[in-house]
Design a protein that fits this description.
Number of strands: 6
Helix content: 25-40%
Oligomer: single chain
Shape: globular
Order of helices and strands: EHEHEHEHEEH
């Protein structure tokens, strides 16, 4: 499966970007995971007129070319990051690549709750009018205390965590294929 994976942080050091890069390597025999870095995305401003910036056009194309999307959301102040909210705004303004697209939310955090609140908030945003993503409601993957589960090279070191990530991905693949079939039938 071809998956566009968005790291929801514009920080230079991002555990969520590292998580997606780990997944791209770990699942390379099953999936082609394209990790999208949002550090160059300008803050969304609804006063913007004209064509979307080139960086947004590139992300739009990469998502449209994918079978599914994974968004790795950090959690700041019990919420998604401003950078992630900004990219979602861009992707629902003049371009709409998430409409009908199967999306799974995941997250990693240095704290005990492991981005659980940001994932709930992100799911609500993704199903709103103008975005209309098909959000996966199966197993939720969030890594609490990520510094104890990931080494300095971005490798997950805990076998139980890897096993649960594999279970989540298997469920998401099944879901994404079903949504893609449904979208295909509806477009006929």
């Amino acid at each position: 499966m071809k998956i566009a994976a968005i790291a929801g942080s514009n920080a230079n050091h991002s555990y969520n970007r590292m998580l997606l890069e780990f997944m791209a390597q770990h699942f390379k025999d099953q999936d082609q995971i394209d990790v999208i870095d949002i550090r160059q995305v300008p803050m969304f401003n609804e006063s913007f007129k004209g064509d979307a910036p080139e960086v947004i056009k590139d992300i739009d194309r990469r998502i449209k070319d994918a079978d599914a999307v994974i968004i790795a959301s950090p959690e700041y102040n019990h919420s998604i990051t401003s950078a992630l909210k900004s990219i979602v705004e861009w992707l629902s303004y003049s371009v709409h690549p998430l409409t009908g697209k199967p999306v799974m939310t995941i997250g990693a955090s240095t704290h005990d709750q492991g981005a659980s609140r940001s994932q709930v908030q992100l799911r609500d945003i993704l199903i709103s009018p103008g975005i209309n993503a098909s959000v996966y409601q199966g197993d939720e993957f969030f890594m609490s205390n990520v510094t104890s589960l990931m080494d300095e090279n971005g490798n997950i070191t805990d076998e139980r965590t890897i096993g649960f990530l594999e279970k989540c991905m298997n469920g998401f693949r099944y879901y994404a294929k079903a949504i893609d079939r449904m979208n295909e039938e509806m477009s006929k």
